[in-house]
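Fig. S4 source data, part A: sequence.
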Amino acid sequence: MPKIAEIEYTPNPNAVKFVLKEPVTSGFPKAFRDQEMAEHDGLAKGLFAVEHVLSVFMQDKFITVTKDDGVGWTELLPKLAPPIRQAPSVAGQAAETGAEGESSRLVAESTDPHGIGGYGAVA
């Protein structure tokens, strides 16, 4: 279960970065621009279940969530914390399955490997 170490505001007022104590991904970053893309990732799916979430980006020990203008961070942050805290860490997943899951591999392979060019499509 990833624990939140800190929350950092970004230059984008509609995005925050959750710095975690445990990794939620390994290798390539995972980027989800909508709920449909997040269908096969439990953590991303849980974050999109929170109203007003527009996109989710994950890499190693951080998650960046972007929201719409319909809500402030004071109201939204407490709703985003439970899905993050309930998600298994990469170390926990590897112990259970012996390797990173197939759907995670597909997401990772389809996203921008440099994490700078936007969002990839899930295969």
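Fig. S4 source data, part B ends here. Residues 94-123 have pLDDT under 50 and may be disordered.
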